[in-house]
Amino acid sequence: MSAEQPDPRSLDLAVTLSETPNGPHHEFTLRAIRGKLASGSTVPDPQAALDAVLRNGEAVFFPEPGPPRLCTQQYGGPQQAVVTGTFGGRRVHTTLTLTDGCEIARWRALAPLLGGTAGNAGRT
To answer: Residues 6 or more apart from 108 whose CB is under 8 A from it?
Structure first.
């Protein structure tokens, strides 16, 4: 009997967002089964969050190893988001920041998951 492969569009993610290192935290969840929202999602716009995660795929959580990336040296602020849970059956534990151009782009790609929209860098 073969084990069933997890659906790559199923996810159960928890987000802890902090505006400043010692400031208050905001917590959100996003749950989906086979690409459809599941009960228990608490992000402000669950469908937009799910669309952002599925559009960006697993590479946003599990980057491929390779040569160092060249990123612009810019600082977007002290905000930080820790995302944990599962995506497509794989364990997720990643931290998003605004510390350079590459991280700012990753943050904006997932802004709906972080409680905001791509235009405001995810701020709530």
So the answer is: 118, 121, 122
Whether the pLDDT of residue 2 is over 50: the answer is: no
Average pLDDT of span 29-33 = 96
Q: What is the pLDDT of residue 122?
A: 43
| pLDDT higher than threshold 90 for residue 101 | yes
Cα separation, 124 vs 121, in Å, equals: 9
Q: How far is CA 102 from CA 24, 65, 97, 99, in A?
A: 25, 15, 10, 8
State pLDDT tens for residues 72-92: 999 999 999 999 999 999 999
CB 18 within 8 A of CB 24: yes
Distance (Å, whole) CA 59 – CA 61? 5
CA 87 remoteness from chain centre? 10
Question: How many of the other CB atoms lie within 10 Å of CB of 87?
Answer: 25
